[in-house]
């Protein structure tokens, strides 16, 4: 039997089978009820007190109605239609039946529905308000509705997940989406959202890239640069697609900084390097100059020790505790860059360069990971310089020194690059990867215990 009952005379039954996530997305449900009314009746059974009922199915709808009344968006004596069950024994079964046979709406249908309202002239803000969701949520769903037809059809058919579809929406270029989808559909890792994003954004630059930070968003856009924003990510996930403009602006800006530095320091040259490190082969073409160094003062030594300890602690946190991409990890990385700059400044202040040869020396200027220009900590010359008091022959260009003189940082960097090259090759050659896996299994698994192979 259907009848009208005041919300204040309804209470939630303990027989309601939904025990968890009772308040999930309750604000959205309340906004939807406020905009469209209660579209599905509550299922209730009568209590001993006349006119009072307990809700067996529809607990979230009841709490949403109560919230609207508490916020004065509905009258205190607001009435709703309910289905009254006289048989209390079957109420738990009714609650289970309502929740168990509910089928979630296909994401593709949801996207098409939101786009339908926008096509009819409604704004994203109006649609969001009427359905109790955020404006960003509506924009995200509409972006999915505008995917390449082959991608959207795969979402509707359940061939790809919502997360994969969101990865394709990182760019509005439907032709590029279709090409990548065709390629990914034949790939073993084609259902991985990160792989999809990587394939789509190949040839673009992230806003967090050192060059992008150095140039600045306003300068890039002012020069005609285009930006694609990932609606499913944060502001740092936007992609700058005109790489040529970034390279040109960054090169011009770094060249200007190099000229200013050379003039201020009265150096023979300052070579700009549009990278986050100075390539070793560029150093190899020059002679490294080793100026005399003064001893650190007591205050400077204490500061160096303090910064080194802090840097070591941050590195341990980044390696063991902090997750990549989190605000804490980003803050730690920024602090590490600040520490490195301060240590470089302290080290640079120790050098004592003879004014007679300073006009023969130069250095490099490059980019720090945060996009700020950084001056190389060492000095070089284009010709060999015999330093005062030195009986030995001038040193050869730095590229001809023995391997034992390579810095630990450079050795680590070369080792990392070697591993990355190997990993890239293995990942791109499935046949070789399989052969390598089988060989490693045989090498480490099939050998009798206690037997050592020559060369291990």
UniProtKB/TrEMBL annotation:
User: Which Pfam families does the record match to this protein?
Assistant: HTH_ParB, ParB_N
Under SUPFAM superfamilies, the record lists: KorB DNA-binding domain-like (SSF109709), ParB/Sulfiredoxin (SSF110849)
Q: Name one GO molecular function term.
A: DNA binding
Domain ParB-like N-terminal residue range list: 3-100
- InterPro entries named among the record's database cross-references: Chromosome_partition/occlusion, HTH_ParB/Spo0J, ParB/RepB/Spo0J, ParB/Sulfiredoxin_sf, ParB_N
GO annotation, biological process: chromosome segregation
- Source organism, top-level taxon: Bacteria
List the GO terms this entry assigns under cellular component, sorted alphabetically. Answer: chromosome
Spell out the family assignment given in the record's similarity comment: Belongs to the ParB family.
Q: What is this protein called?
A: ParB-like protein
The species this protein was found in: Sphingobium herbicidovorans (strain ATCC 700291 / DSM 11019 / CCUG 56400 / KCTC 2939 / LMG 18315 / NBRC 16415 / MH) (Sphingomonas herbicidovorans)
